[in-house]
Amino acid sequence: MSKLAASRRSPIALIVLLFLGLTFTGTAYAALQPSTSPDATAASATASDDAEEGKKLFLANCASCHGTNAEGKKGINTAGPSLVGVGSAAVDFQVGTGRMPMANPGVQAPEKPKVFTDKEIEQLGIFIDSLGPGPSVPDAQYIDLVNADIANGGKIFRTNCAMCHNSSAQGGALTRGKYAPSLMGVDSKHIYEAMLTGPQSMPVFNDHTITPQEKEDVIAFVKNIEEGGNDFGGHTLGSIGPAGDALFIWTIGIGLLIAVAIWLGRKAA
Predict the structure, then answer these.
(1) Which phi-psi region, left, alpha or beta, contains residue 224 (left: φ > 0; alpha: ψ -120 to 50)?
(2) What pLDDT tens digit does each residue of the chain (269 aa) get?
(3) Which of 109, 9, 27, 110 is nearest to 66 (CA)?
C-alpha cells in the first residue's frame, strides 16, 4: 500500500493524468463538433467563386476610378470614392440602375440602361462585401408591399423626402447642377437601397432612422402615386406640387382678371 501511495504522488503520475485528460478532451471534441454539411461547403465555394468573378469585373470596369483595391482615387477625370464598406446594396443600386459605370464624368451620375447582367451585379456586390461589411440588398419581405401602410409612408415621405423629390415624388432641382430624380417607374428594391445607402446628394436613412417596415411604407406611398392614387379630380398639372398650381393661377387667373379689367374699362369709355 505504501508503494502504491508513493506512485500516486510521483511527478510521472501527474504527467500521465494530464496526457489522458487532454486525449479524452480532444477525442470528445472531435466526436461532438458539428460536421460541415456538403451544402454549406458548396455554398462557401460558390461565394468564393462569385467574389473572384466580381473582382475580375471590378478590375476591368471600375478600378480606373475607384482604385485596384476599391480604396478610392483622386484625379480630374478618374476620381472615385472608396467602396470599402459600402455594401452590396450600394452596388446593386448604382450598377442596377445604370448609374455606374459612368459614361462621362459629371456632377451627378444619371440613370441609364444597365451594363451588367443581374448575375454580374450580384458578383460585384459579393466582391465589395468581401472588402468590408456594409448594407445588404433588402429582404423580399420589405419590398413586396404586402404589409405596407400607405398613409404612414406618405407622412414619412413628406417629412424626409418631399423637400428634394417634390411632394408628388416627381423630382426637383438641387444646387450646382445636381437634381433629385423622379421616383416614378423606379424599382421598389432600388428605392429601398437609395434610402439605405444615400447615393450622391441624398442623406443616408439607416434602419435606426427609418425602419425597414417604414421604408416599405414609403415605397408603397410612391407606388400609390405612380398608379394615380394621388389624383383627386381635375387636371394633375404635371403633379409637380404647389409650383404648378401657382403657375396656373398666375398665367390663367391673373390673365383673365386683366382681360376683364380691360373689357370693363373699354365698356365704361
Answers:
(1) alpha
(2) 555 455 555 666 667 666 677 777 767 666 666 655 555 455 567 778 999 999 999 999 999 999 999 999 887 667 889 999 999 999 999 999 999 998 888 889 999 999 999 999 999 999 999 999 999 999 999 999 999 999 999 999 999 999 999 888 999 999 988 999 999 999 999 999 999 999 999 999 999 999 999 999 999 999 999 988 665 556 666 666 666 667 777 788 888 888 889 888 887 76
(3) 109
